[in-house]
Amino acid sequence: MDNQTTNNKRFISLRLKWAFGTAVGSLIIFLVVTLALFTAFTQNLFRQERELLNQGMTTISQQLAKSSQPLTRRSIERLIDPNNDRSIIRGADYQRPVIRELSDGHLIVNIYNPQGKKLLSTGAPDVGKSLVNERQVSLARGREHQVLVGHTPIYSQKGRQVIGYLQVENNLNSYTQSYSQLRLVCVMALCLVVLASGLLGYFLSYFLLRPLSDIHDTVKVISKDPTKEIRVPTVNRNDELAELIEMFNEMLDRMQRYINQQSQFVSDVSHELRTPVAIIQGHLELLERWGKDDPQVLNDSLAASLVETKRMKNLVQEMLDLSRAEQVEINFRDQQTVVNDVVHQVYNNFKMLYPEFTFTLDDDVHEKITANIYRDHLEQVLVILCDNAVKYSKDRKEVHLTLSRGMNSVEIGVQDFGEGIAPDDAKRVFDRFYRVDKARSRKKGGNGLGLSIAQRLIEGYHGSISLESSPGAGSLFKVVLPIVDDPEDK
């Protein structure tokens, strides 16, 4: 049910998500900036219109306040046009511009006497008259849009009595026009930014995320056939995706090696087990037919079967050791061992086991060296190396062990003077079940897993093991382990 639900989910490309996210992010940022700028600009325009209205009201009211009597049409004419220039007066009302120095072209001025009778008007007002006893400026509903209206009583300069009323309207046409134009520009700019950022995000994601498509295609091919040697094309970039591709290819290489080793391992195990099983089966069939009646044949068959059974037991044990060796980093990560003690112990044990051999130990270290490795594992590695040195020594029965210290590591060497190994074979001696001379190795009891176990153990503790050898001159195995602080020294 869960798989069916997952398969029914609609696939959405990461490029589309990136483009959509970029567009939405740009929209939010640009919207905030645009709203801030739009608000600041329109408020500044409105403030200028309000200041213009206040300035006109102040100038006109001051000019009309020079009259000591209640305002009349004649007194207004005298105050506005002291030179009696009738050219600016037409009929009963004054048309624009009626007060050149005192008002602006888009201000509508209405003057009333104390009884509320209109004495002068520069245009048709959008709002009705309002006679107030204190100065007011407010927004009012006009015919097309809101207008700014100012009301103020006119006081005489001498008696401080109301001689009339002044009403000035600012129709805000220029403000409304600028507001509409600016809003249109902002909307168009907003659409352009969203479109441009979306396209930029899409093409940028196409360029930056192209390696992900290569990884996706590679994974699909590998999932169908894990044995295919296909890799993600590398890119000439220094970023996270380039590192991801490199790590992914390394993982595929490692997986391929594991698959090859597993196939080889199964093949080698089948081959190694086939021989002793066939031998045991042959002897049992021989005994079943007639051999059980012949004491000599019975003894020989039982002895051969026991030998092959023992070899199978050793093979299974070595396979288990190899499996455990691949998990040392998980199970023994905190183990520490004094390397000097283990080297001297193995050296003394082999001197006792093989008195016909000459064992020498060159110890250049005069202090305890502690390495991050389980003691039994280090001993197992040295036993494998020393046992191989003994097995493959010929006339010169000598084995040299060395112990030295580097800057941050300890090096252990095991050298024999026996058969030696050719360069082509030296590259494969650490492979599972590999034998340089299969016939002679089987006679000597080897299954070809010892060096593989030693390598897995040492590499599990972040060390290294290497071989230097040439045919007829012997072999030198070097084990290098990182040094850790001795807890007793702290």
TrEMBL record:
Record SMART domains: HAMP, HATPase_c, HisKA
Sorted UniProt keywords: Kinase, Membrane, Phosphoprotein, Transferase, Transmembrane, Transmembrane helix
Entry membrane topology: Multi-pass membrane protein
Catalytic activity as recorded in UniProt: ATP + protein L-histidine = ADP + protein N-phospho-L-histidine
Domain Histidine kinase, first and last residues per copy: 268-485
InterPro entries, A to Z: ArlS_N, HAMP_dom, HATPase_dom, His_kinase_dom, HisK_dim/P_dom, HssS/ArlS-like
Membrane-crossing residue ranges in chain numbering: 18-41, 184-209
Gene Ontology molecular function, alphabetical: kinase activity
Listed EC numbers: 2.7.13.3
Major location (coarse): membrane
Highest taxon of the lineage: Bacteria
Limits of the HAMP domain: 206-260
Protein name per the record: Signal transduction histidine-protein kinase ArlS
Lineage: Bacteria, Bacillati, Bacillota, Bacilli, Lactobacillales
